[in-house]
């Protein structure tokens, strides 16, 4: 089955008969802008062509012409659940291949790397410091991450729905050890103070925005941090390697447990329950493990929950101490004037300095 086919009610529906026509060309451009937010390394033209394939059309030109002259298709909210699910799976395949760059060859390579990784001792010094072995770990994770990211991106973008998913606002009343939205800046403070030679990593982390309820943000942030930990295993303490990734895994699982009916919003209660089964939600622990498998530090899966909790506590202690040092070393107003703290100043100030 090609990437332009839908599957509904167990039957293949070709892109021509299942093509989606948006309500206007303006709606097209809006979705393209959103796709660029999720795939910033892709050009506008690449996002346009990918969207055309998602909508079952040969090219952007054909899609744009159809949007101007054709009859608009029903949005997800007015379609059957089977059609919505078929659209979603189709969108995921296109996002994986056209935007994420995942191919069948990547799948085979990732499987071979997975086998090599599980057959060797990750903790051996020779393996941890072997550049080729570290590259393989990152390559394996990038494949799993790309697939998971594409699926979550399509849930958040919702290309054939009236509106994209509304990401809930961050909760700034939480304890600092649970504030995943503040972790990028906290890690930047630690890197600037303790590992100035890793300025490149610090710059990449500083650019990130991590929303507590965005699965894509959690995947992306954890992947970048996990990659840094694999490439610089002796520069970053073990607890500080585990804490950010494990905390992201918790948020990922929490979000998944309350997002059971994303594909069927606006449908009946029975259809919403069915949507939960379609997305195949597993227990919280399984969601955490699934998240950890998309990260370069894949060995975190083998750690027991109690060990991860101890490492998280130790990592949080490190972060908190260096945040306190940073605050005490300069005026509060100057410290919180940095862009990464926007909107979180008062809450974090209370937590850090008390």
Structure keywords:
354 residues; mainly alpha; disordered C terminus
Describe this structure as you would to a colleague:
By secondary structure, this protein is an all-alpha fold. The protein has two domains: 8-166, no CATH class; 170-354, no CATH class. 62% of the residues lie in helices and 2% in strands. It has a two-stranded antiparallel sheet with strand order 1-2. The N and C termini lie far apart (59 Å). Residues 7-17, 260-267, 275-281 and 335-354 have low confidence and may be disordered.
Topology:
Layout lengths: L5 E3 L2 E3 L1 H4 L6 H14 L5 H11 L5 H10 L11 H19 L4 H15 L6 H4 L2 H27 L25 H12 L4 H8 L8 H17 L6 H21 L10 H11 L4 H9 L12 H24 L3 H4 L9 H9 L1
Antiparallel strand pairs: 1-2
Helix pairs in contact: 2-3, 3-4, 3-5, 5-8, 6-8, 8-11, 9-10, 9-15, 11-12, 12-14, 12-15
Number of helices: 17
> Uncertain runs with pLDDT below 50, 5 residues or more?
7-17, 260-267, 275-281, 335-354
- Report the count of strand segments: 2
β-strand amount: under 5%
Between the first and last Cα atoms, what is the distance in angstroms?
59 Å
Reported for the largest beta sheet, the result is: 2 strands, antiparallel
Q: Briefly note the structural class of the backbone.
A: mainly alpha
Query: N-to-C SSE series?
Result: EEHHHHHHHHHHHHHHHHH
Report the average pLDDT across residues.
Answer: 80
